[in-house]
Amino acid sequence: MLGHHLDVVGSPDWKPLAVQTAVGLTGIMIGLVASPRRDLPS
Fold first, then answer.
1. Number of domains making up the chain
2. CA 29 vs CA 7, 17, 26, 36: distances in Å
3. Boundaries of domain holding 22
């Protein structure tokens, strides 16, 4: 019941939050991938 209540209340705001989360996760993944390459001597 609590989950349903939160879903109804937060429904209009889930898209911006999902976008922000996706952008954040993408940034983290890019950082993890780029970090070892950046640490290698060129």
1. 1
2. 28, 18, 5, 12
3. 4-39
